[in-house]
Design goal:
The protein is an alpha/beta fold and about 140 residues long. It has helices at about 5-15, 20-30, 40-55, 60-70, 80-85, 95-105, 130-140; strands at about 1-5, 35-40, 75, 110, 125.
Length: about 140
Protein backbone atom coordinates (compact mmCIF):
# COMPACT_ATOMS: atom_id res chain seq x y z
CA UNK A 1 0.00 0.00 0.00
CA UNK A 2 1.75 3.15 -1.24
CA UNK A 3 0.69 6.17 0.80
CA UNK A 4 1.96 9.73 0.57
CA UNK A 5 1.76 11.64 3.84
CA UNK A 6 0.93 15.33 3.85
CA UNK A 7 3.27 17.52 5.89
CA UNK A 8 0.65 18.11 8.59
CA UNK A 9 0.49 14.40 9.47
CA UNK A 10 4.25 14.21 10.08
CA UNK A 11 4.25 17.44 12.09
CA UNK A 12 1.41 16.09 14.24
CA UNK A 13 3.73 13.27 15.33
CA UNK A 14 6.99 15.20 15.65
CA UNK A 15 5.43 18.09 17.57
CA UNK A 16 2.93 15.86 19.43
CA UNK A 17 0.01 18.01 18.29
CA UNK A 18 -2.97 16.70 20.24
CA UNK A 19 -5.54 15.34 19.44
CA UNK A 20 -4.12 14.57 15.99
CA UNK A 21 -0.89 12.85 17.03
CA UNK A 22 -2.44 9.51 18.04
CA UNK A 23 -3.85 8.65 14.61
CA UNK A 24 -0.78 10.04 12.86
CA UNK A 25 1.51 7.98 15.13
CA UNK A 26 -0.47 4.85 14.33
CA UNK A 27 0.01 5.44 10.61
CA UNK A 28 3.73 6.08 11.00
CA UNK A 29 4.04 2.88 13.01
CA UNK A 30 2.62 1.02 10.00
CA UNK A 31 5.40 2.54 7.88
CA UNK A 32 7.98 1.42 10.48
CA UNK A 33 6.50 -2.10 10.39
CA UNK A 34 6.61 -2.10 6.57
CA UNK A 35 2.84 -2.57 6.34
CA UNK A 36 2.61 0.73 4.45
CA UNK A 37 5.11 2.04 1.90
CA UNK A 38 5.31 5.62 3.11
CA UNK A 39 6.10 8.48 0.76
CA UNK A 40 6.99 12.08 1.61
CA UNK A 41 7.21 14.92 -0.86
CA UNK A 42 10.73 16.36 -0.96
CA UNK A 43 9.31 19.77 -0.04
CA UNK A 44 7.84 18.19 3.10
CA UNK A 45 11.37 17.44 4.30
CA UNK A 46 12.50 21.07 4.02
CA UNK A 47 9.30 22.38 5.59
CA UNK A 48 9.56 19.95 8.49
CA UNK A 49 13.18 20.85 9.14
CA UNK A 50 12.32 24.55 9.21
CA UNK A 51 9.30 24.21 11.52
CA UNK A 52 10.79 21.59 13.84
CA UNK A 53 14.03 23.56 14.22
CA UNK A 54 11.97 26.59 15.29
CA UNK A 55 10.05 24.51 17.84
CA UNK A 56 12.68 22.04 19.07
CA UNK A 57 16.05 23.31 17.84
CA UNK A 58 18.38 22.40 14.97
CA UNK A 59 19.76 19.21 16.51
CA UNK A 60 16.31 17.75 17.09
CA UNK A 61 15.24 18.78 13.59
CA UNK A 62 18.27 17.08 12.07
CA UNK A 63 17.63 13.87 14.05
CA UNK A 64 14.01 13.82 12.93
CA UNK A 65 14.98 14.39 9.29
CA UNK A 66 17.46 11.50 9.41
CA UNK A 67 14.77 9.27 10.88
CA UNK A 68 12.25 10.27 8.20
CA UNK A 69 14.79 9.71 5.43
CA UNK A 70 15.43 6.20 6.72
CA UNK A 71 11.72 5.33 6.84
CA UNK A 72 10.15 7.05 3.84
CA UNK A 73 10.47 7.04 0.09
CA UNK A 74 11.02 10.61 -1.08
CA UNK A 75 8.79 11.80 -3.91
CA UNK A 76 10.95 14.21 -5.89
CA UNK A 77 9.89 17.63 -7.05
CA UNK A 78 11.25 18.36 -10.49
CA UNK A 79 10.27 20.53 -13.44
CA UNK A 80 7.55 18.11 -14.62
CA UNK A 81 5.95 18.02 -11.15
CA UNK A 82 6.07 21.81 -10.86
CA UNK A 83 4.65 22.38 -14.34
CA UNK A 84 1.78 19.97 -13.72
CA UNK A 85 1.11 21.58 -10.35
CA UNK A 86 1.13 25.06 -11.88
CA UNK A 87 -1.44 24.04 -14.50
CA UNK A 88 -3.65 22.07 -12.12
CA UNK A 89 -7.02 23.11 -10.71
CA UNK A 90 -5.74 23.12 -7.14
CA UNK A 91 -6.23 26.42 -5.31
CA UNK A 92 -3.13 25.91 -3.18
CA UNK A 93 0.14 25.47 -5.09
CA UNK A 94 1.82 23.58 -2.25
CA UNK A 95 -1.00 21.01 -2.24
CA UNK A 96 -0.78 20.77 -6.03
CA UNK A 97 2.95 20.08 -5.82
CA UNK A 98 2.42 17.42 -3.17
CA UNK A 99 -0.29 15.77 -5.30
CA UNK A 100 1.78 15.79 -8.48
CA UNK A 101 4.85 14.49 -6.65
CA UNK A 102 2.71 11.65 -5.26
CA UNK A 103 1.43 10.77 -8.74
CA UNK A 104 4.88 11.00 -10.30
CA UNK A 105 6.43 8.77 -7.59
CA UNK A 106 3.75 6.09 -7.83
CA UNK A 107 1.88 6.64 -4.57
CA UNK A 108 -1.68 5.29 -4.66
CA UNK A 109 -3.22 7.31 -1.81
CA UNK A 110 -2.73 10.59 0.05
CA UNK A 111 -3.43 11.08 3.75
CA UNK A 112 -3.94 14.59 5.09
CA UNK A 113 -5.88 16.37 7.78
CA UNK A 114 -7.30 18.57 5.03
CA UNK A 115 -8.89 16.26 2.43
CA UNK A 116 -11.08 19.08 1.12
CA UNK A 117 -7.91 20.84 -0.10
CA UNK A 118 -7.40 17.91 -2.48
CA UNK A 119 -10.82 17.83 -4.15
CA UNK A 120 -9.13 17.91 -7.58
CA UNK A 121 -6.91 14.93 -6.77
CA UNK A 122 -6.68 12.05 -9.19
CA UNK A 123 -5.68 9.85 -6.23
CA UNK A 124 -7.94 8.81 -3.36
CA UNK A 125 -7.41 11.21 -0.44
CA UNK A 126 -8.19 10.29 3.15
CA UNK A 127 -8.13 11.87 6.57
CA UNK A 128 -6.08 9.83 9.06
CA UNK A 129 -9.12 8.23 10.73
CA UNK A 130 -10.67 7.32 7.37
CA UNK A 131 -7.45 5.80 6.10
CA UNK A 132 -7.01 3.74 9.28
CA UNK A 133 -10.53 2.34 8.81
CA UNK A 134 -9.84 1.57 5.12
CA UNK A 135 -6.47 0.04 6.00
CA UNK A 136 -8.01 -2.25 8.62
CA UNK A 137 -10.74 -3.30 6.16
CA UNK A 138 -8.25 -4.09 3.41
CA UNK A 139 -5.98 -5.93 5.83
CA UNK A 140 -8.83 -8.12 7.08
CA UNK A 141 -10.05 -9.05 3.58
Amino acid sequence: MKLLFDTNIILDVLLDRKPFSNEASFLLSKVEQSEIAGFLCSTTITTIHYLVSKALGNQAASRHIQSLLSLFIIAPVNRVVLEKAASSKFKDFEDAVLHEAACHAGAKYIVTRNPSDFKHSSLPVFGPREFIAAFELLKNN
